[in-house]
Amino acid sequence: MATITRPPVEPGAPSGGPGKRGGISVGPLLAFVGVIAILLMAAMVAMNYMLLSGRGAAGQVAVAAPTTKVGPSAISVVATEFKFTPAEVTIPGPGDLTATIDNKGLIEHDLVIEGIDGRVLAAGGAKASGVFKLAKNGVYNFICTIPGHKEAGMVGRLVVGTPEQTAAKPDQIAYGPGPAAVVQPPVSLKPADAAAKPLPLPQVAAPVNRTAPANVNVTIETQEITAKLADGVTYTLWTFGGTVPGPMVRVRQGDTVTMTLKNNASSKVTHSIDFHSATGPGGGAKVTQVPPGQEATFSFKALNPGVYVYHCATPMVAHHIANGMYGLMIVEPPGGYPKVDREFYVMQGEFYLAGKRGQEGHHEFSMEKMLNEEPDYALFNGSVGALTNGAMKARVGETVRIFFGVGGPNLTSSFHVIGEIFDRVYPEGASEFMTNVQTTLVPTGGSAVVDFKLEVPGNYVLVDHSLGRLEKGLAGILEVEGPANPEVFNPINPLPKP
Ligand SMILES: [Cu+2]
After folding, report:
1. d(CA 442, CA 447)
2. What CATH superfamily is the domain 28-182?
3. Residue 445 C-alpha to ligand 1 middle, in angstroms?
4. How far is the CA of 482 from the centre of ligand 1 (A)?
5. What span, in angstroms and rounded, lies between the C-alpha atoms of 98 and 154?
6. Which fold would CATH assign to domain 215-481?
7. pLDDT tens, residue by residue, 411-429
8. If 392 and its partner were Cys, which of 84, 220, 454, 478 is the partner (CB 3.0–4.6 Å)?
9. Span from the CA of 235 to the centroid of ligand 1 (angstroms)
10. What pLDDT, in 10s, does the model give residues 67-113?
11. Which of 186-200, 252-266, 436-450, 479-493 has the lowest mean pLDDT?
């Protein structure tokens, strides 16, 4: 709620109620009542200020605007995901401002007044206060500087002094555009991080090979790593274990998994983990909202076999997923999957950058593009070229399996391998398989297992058959070596190679 009302339309106009749109004549006194409602301390300040400024109950400005400090004042705002309440606060004038952030959210939030030194940080469910030194009247933005939070809507306005004093247009103060409208998109990029490399690839976990359930301990550390996403393009990925996707967890149905999630001390934000394979609130997310430098542990029983996504579930969840926070957990049925010669681990996700695709530099995350579902890159395993540079190799005669998942956060996949037919597909990671499939639809937060035998040598390109995404980097190459097999495929009179 706004704590300032419009200034009088004209002196002596009929009174309206506080906050009533248009025709308001109550003015500063009730403005201060709003402040009182927020905090008793502010009320005292307001009363002092009334005495100092010679204001009357009619709300007219009786003396010239003060240009000197009016003394200490205080505000208190509630922070949640992802807003401040109130989103606009008013204090009578410059001086020391004690700002209290009452964090009723799940994760940490801070309050920074743009252009003013200082920061107040409060953990989820906690309160914190700090003092900001305000030298002059004006309209300031206060924001949460936790990455992504400002873009998600955590912007408020602090009005210091009355509208007359701040020289702002009345409409900008009480009824101006909402917070989202005041956020300016970045116009230029920082230089790319010259030391950044593509993230290493995650390994396929070995088959379980166990005849009875067991207790399995899993520890994963979340790490925020600046990496090369494409040539000349760097981005700070949020990862499970330093890879995108995160480490493959592989257990047997009936196993009890004791999961410890650590959040590296260098992280800027809280992270968590939601296992789609777990049965229980949030799949673990509720008990693993881990601030930087801390850890949390929970256990769950892998009741259902299948191939399951896990992902970070810290608000804004889509932002964390868009930064690379997903992986697969395999829960093998008793006896495991049919044996194949090689297994691969591939996950699809898309990335939303502040700059343009291919624009050299270090890119920040674009909340706007993410909400519009317009990614700059769609990728297998977290970087352009991750799976096209010899990462996937096999030989003619072998059987291969791809554990395939989609992190998203927004795009489903029409997963296809050009030049191959899936002999077996376990659609959506389910227990039953289908046979002889060309393309399998994989939802976000879902998976598929595809098995096929290699008969003919050559390069087989993994794609999402929504092929516009190929231009956004979404490709992998399975390189198959071995003798030609003209009975199956025979280039009788091929065009000469260019
Ligand atoms: Cu996260």
Report:
1. 6
2. Cupredoxins -  blue copper proteins (2.60.40.420)
3. 15
4. 43
5. 19
6. Immunoglobulin-like (2.60.40)
7. 999 999 999 999 999 999 9
8. 478
9. 15
10. 456 678 999 999 999 889 999 999 988 999 999 999 998 889 999 99
11. 186-200
